[in-house]
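COURSE: Structural Biology Practicum
ASSIGNMENT: Worksheet 4, Part C
STUDENT ID: 0417
INSTRUCTIONS: Below are two proteins. For each, the amino acid sequence is given first, followed by its structure token string. Answer the questions at the end about the second protein only.

PROTEIN I
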Amino acid sequence: MNKWSYAKEKLLSEGYTCVLCSGSTVYTSALRGVKPLVQWLKNGTDVKGFYAADKVVGKATAFLYVLLGVQAVYAHVISRPALAVLKENGIEVQYGTLVENIINRKGDGICPFEEAVIKISDAHEAYPAILRKMKEMNIEL
């Protein structure tokens, strides 16, 4: 089984929201949103060159994958802005469904994290905006 297949299979069959793998090293999370990626960044988890599979990838998530240094991302659902960020940063991408924007959990507007970074074009500028939005929404690590 290749790296794409392994990460994607774990994502879709085992109920995870996010899977990162390289060889025998695998990190998984069932947490929603940007939280698992921010935790891995804050903890200094080394996933450079890993393959990632994620349920939903918006622009904020794409910036976090850039900062984590992953080699490739499979997204079950991906937004056009996220796809552009990944491609512009040389990250291989496969996806199931391409959408204009990620919608919030209520279904009545754009995801607050996608909205927080919509006008940002650099991952290092996006990261503080993501952390501010987490604080504003009382999302603790």
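PROTEIN II
(use this one for the questions)
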Amino acid sequence: MNYKFSNDRPIFLQLSEYIEADILSGVFAEESPLPSTTELSVELKLNPATTLKGVNILVDQGLVEKKRGIGMFVVKGAREKILKKQRNAFNEEYLLPLISIAKNLGIERDDLIKSIMEIYK
């Protein structure tokens, strides 16, 4: 794991996002175990409480489950949940503002779609 943490946001949030990205990319496959919080803490040189807080975000989101005495595992369907969450975020962060600006500029919907299709090629 080559996670680079910045000082602009809490480390536990960044950790959960890194693990989420690794689930999405297949580094951590669905139904496979995650490294233990102790292993993560040691490897990443993080406080164990910070590591646990980051992993618990994923548990709360239903992406990871704790199996008592065995460890933490990526749940089946986690990748699809992440994709859905990121697509919704994309719509809110990029598409809604884009549409708002296009409307303010008087760009019609069909013209906007045509422009997007030309650029997307």
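ANSWER KEY EXCERPT:
Q1: DSSP finds five helices and two strands in the chain.
Q2: Residues 78-104 form the longest helix (27 residues).
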